[in-house]
Design brief:
With 184 residues, the protein is α+β, with helices and mostly antiparallel strands. It contains six helices and five strands, in the order ββαββαβαααα.
């Protein structure tokens, strides 16, 4: 009978919709694997202690601190990093709103802020300002008073709601849908 290697585990990771097989160390954090092994450097290391939120990613639909998640715990679970927000070269509405509202400042906290905000909007598409502040409470920013960030999330929620309503109004064929006899 062969020896069992307790220092490494093989696993399949689903990151930004792509499946990757990796051998990870039992002491490696998800943050380390994302940055060092997969080259997804948008996820930042700030404190490495779960205090700053710079390493926030979405796992199983929830915002998590990747510095506190062991890599082997993330195997087989869907993970979204900031690199996975944009689709087809088009920025996510949150990314657009952050830029337009000047919520990016130095940019170091931005990936974590974006993913915390996305997890919030996925769970609550119409949050009030207090709910937004609560969802972002674990993300520290040294550059702003958070006002622009909250404004950006609020604006993105409106854009996303309008996008869904706009798509429904256009119908499956992309044409404007309305009542018979309405001018278009």
């Amino acid at each position: 009978m062969g020896a069992v290697d307790l220092e490494y585990l093989d696993g399949e990771f689903l990151v930004n919709g792509e499946r990757r097989r990796l051998r990870v160390g039992t002491s490696e954090s998800l943050l380390q694997v994302l940055r060092d092994r997969l080259g997804l450097t948008g996820t930042k290391e700030g404190c490495a202690a779960g205090d700053c939120g710079a390493c926030t990613v979405i796992m199983d639909g929830r915002a998590v601190l990747s510095c506190l998640v062991m890599a082997f715990q993330a195997a087989g679970r869907p993970i979204t990093t900031v690199e996975g927000l944009a689709e087809g070269g088009k920025l996510h509405p949150l990314q657009e709103a952050f830029v337009e509202h000047g919520a990016v400042q130095c940019g170091y906290c931005t990936p974590g802020m974006l993913l915390s905000a996305k997890a919030l909007l996925d769970a609550d598409p119409k949050p009030d300002r207090e709910t937004i502040r609560e969802a972002l409470a674990g993300n520290l920013c040294r550059c702003t008073g958070y006002h622009k960030i909250v404004d950006a999330v609020e604006d993105a929620a409106k854009r996303m709601a309008e996008g869904v309503a706009g798509a429904a109004a256009r119908g499956a064929d992309g044409l404007q849908v309305g009542k018979a006899g309405e001018g278009r």
